[in-house]
Amino acid sequence: MIVKNEAENLPPCLESVRNVVDEMVVMDTGSTDQTVEIAQQFGAKVPYFEWCNDFAIARNAALDHVTGDWVLILDADERLNPNVVPQLKQAITDENSLVINLVRHEIGASQSPYSLVSRLFRKHPEVEFSRPYHAIIDDSVSELLKKESHWKIVDLPAIAVFHYGYDPQTITALDKYTKAQKSMEGFLDKNPNDPYTCSKLGALYLQIGKEKDGIKLLKKGLKSNKADAHVLFELHYHLANAYTRENESEKAIKHYQKAIVQEIMAPLKLGAYNNFGVVLQSIDDFKNAAKMYETTLQIDPNFITGYYNLAMTLSSMGRLADAEAVYNKLLSLSPNYAPAYQNLGVVLFKLKKLPESSAAFKKAMSLYESQNYHQEAQKLKAGLQELGIWEE
To answer: Is CATH 3.10.20.90 what the domain over 2-155 is classified as, yes or no?
Structure first.
């Protein structure tokens, strides 16, 4: 791993691999906190690298210090899932395996909760990182496969890595968007038709409000004939999201459909199925919206957003008893989900289950207050008073 000022994140990250790996290489790029000391306490090698605004160069420098046969890459805001360790050890016993792609759970991500990352690979002299931002080994692996076709790339379906890097305040504090934009724009100037960078930078433009630039770049990426299924999925998915925000439902639907037919692992499509459902719901196609949400729950039975959207859709269809059951299932998984209690209260009221409805509304109010959503609590209270079903 490469780090800078990660004293807070580093202990749980290194603890997650302490009894799994044979050596730790934690390359420091100029920390001023206790990062170096913490890494050393875990027995890590801690070489120094002077930061040069290029993640690929830094990661390749860290690789020079690796002595093992296999390399696992983690960032400080990630943790290895201990339950997957036996599968990892089994996967690397195949003498023809070159790369083990790992499923990463994006904790707190507002869109897709899972991604596939090429983070476990054989220490081969021709496998190296490229690209200054979103550094990956994929380019070098593709070149190697042209010369040595016996190598295999394996996708491990179990969740292997937990990623906690989606806190908006942390991203803003680290100025990640500005750094990423500058770095990727520089790379794209030299590689103007690279579909991977078009996907990543196009998505970033959408995040920072540059919708037209984002859409233009994503379309450019789709014109390339070099994109694999994963990149094609990302290009269509981000374009669909952009058109959704611009209320261009037909275009959004077209790109969601093209995204979900890509031959990639089902968990990676979760956000696309869900967002496709949202668009269908917005045009009152509740039947097909419900199918999309049901698909998300078949893929991931713990996908809370899928339950919430499905329950709302069933309610809109007049299937109140079914909506009640889905809300109850959701709340069994996430008992502090205030909006679910509020909507359940509405469903129960329509079903004339008044005592249960009142209890659900009170629970929603209590949760809103305890979670400091005072405005939502007041709006709920005012609405209930207007209906004459709230008593102090």
So the answer is: no
Q: Rounded CA gap, 4 and 27, in Å?
A: 9
- What integer pLDDT is reported at residue 185 of this predicted model? 84
pTM, entire model:
0.88
Q: What is the SS3 assignment for 151? A: coil
Q: What is the DSSP string of 17-77?
A: HTTT-S--B-EESS--SSHHHHHHHTT-B--B----S-HHHHHHHHHTT--SSEEE---TT
Helix 211-223 × helix 195-207 angle, to 10°: 160
Q: Where are the domains of the chain?
A: 2-155
Tell me the average pLDDT across 57-72.
97
| 129 sits in which H/E element | none
Give all strands of the β-sheet with 114-122 in edge-to-edge order: 70-72, 114-122, 97-106, 152-163, 78-80
pLDDT value at 263 more than 50: yes
Across the chain, what does the average pLDDT equal? Answer: 92
Look up residue 211 and give its amino acid. E
Average pLDDT over residues 244-261: 96
